[in-house]
Amino acid sequence: MPAIIHTPVSAEKKQHWAARTLPGLLYFGYALLVILSVNNGFFWDSILLASRYGQWYFDSNFSTLFVPENIAGYPPLFGMLLAFLWKIFGKNLLVSHLLILPFALGIVRQILQLCRKFLPENIASWAALLLLADPTLLAQCTQVAPDVLLVFFYLFSLNRILEKRRLLLIFSLIFLGLLSPRGTIAAFALFLTDTCLFIFEKKENRTLKHFAGLFMTYVPAGLLVIIWQILHFRHFGWIGYNPDSEWGTLAQFAGLKGMLRNAVLITWRLVDFGRLFIGFGLLLTLLYYVRKRLQFPPEILRLFTLVSIPFFLFSLVFLPYTNPIGHRYYLVVFLLLALPVYYLLTHVPNRFFRRITYGFMLLGLLTGHFWIYPDSVAKGWDATLAHKPYFELRREAIAFLDVKNIPLETVGSDYPNLAPGSVTDLNNDTRHFQGKNLENNTFVLYSNIFNGFTDKELEELRTQWNVVKSWKKGQVKMILYKRPE
């Protein structure tokens, strides 16, 4: 890790090799990550938010703003963008993943810009490497996931706030607010962040006129979101979620016990998949500051403001409801938390301590792709690269069923393996697996990717059913069971 910062950022300071080489490697690494994923089918929530939404607009030739009610609830921006690209370049997985490529590279650029605002050029790239090594961000970039766009527009907006470039911020907020419900919440988090940074300004800049200009930046996005919600309510009679759908129960009030459970889940998400090492790094650094009686560097309050506001706002929204809290919901928080930790670390005078702690955190994040939980514990497979072998194993399992003349419709399985190939792989295969029902199924295709199997069902499959065929690669396994004669 480079030398300690004792002086302000200077454009004339001689750049370290990392300032010239590491950014290029980060761009190359993220581009390669996306390109190596172009044959992966739609996975987890992208099955709905990308494939089903996109195909609706593609097949209807954009003749209507609203998707069918059974899949409605999200703004149309991402699905329309995907369908538009399909119209131009063809409807296939390659085009779908290449939509993600510019936004993945854009995240690298925005992270580098953000780090350079608080750190000298020669070490900002090391901070960017730590942020960009987050397992959940890497995993999302391998999927056709709207959360990649959410992260990009959030970071782009945050950089424009820090640069006071209001015109660009207006357009970025519009895209962010219309991307998804969490995008709307993220836009409001940016408003709160902007307001707090305004409070930190010098007294002569904290005038009513300046705040009015700040507030007006958010009005266009806010009005468009309100108009969309009104149109959605007039068309469907509800907003947010369909109370009559199978997902309606997930948006109910959780109660005190459920809220406590959600608080535990949020804490788990923060430390899961290697992020525990970021927490340890922060703790060790703070202990060093206390022990050596070091003064905290000047920008630390602003940096913790950037991360604390989205964390508390997202938590206030998620805590009261029974909806499962995914890792990707806190992606922005994961990234922004690593920056103040690194910033504090660079002001520690002990070079050995800095290098050991940085290496500890970076290697810890990389181990996150290998964190294994028992089959009975639900895992956020879309939040780690550990899920990558799933697509190959699924193709092998379907090929085996075809050879054995076992119709897919007679095989029980679970989400995200219930949609037909025409949805997950954009091919012409309209066959699909049954939803699992061990009382009626003759065959069951199980994978540890699936979180919907109960402990009782797993035990019954292991002890009472016969294994016809099993596949395993990396941490992913897939087993075809048959009911005993």
From TrEMBL:
Transmembrane region(s): 27-50, 71-89, 95-112, 124-155, 167-200, 212-231, 266-289, 301-321, 327-345, 352-373
Annotated keywords: Membrane, Transmembrane, Transmembrane helix
Official protein name in the record: Glycosyltransferase RgtA/B/C/D-like domain-containing protein
Organism for this UniProt entry: Adhaeribacter terreus
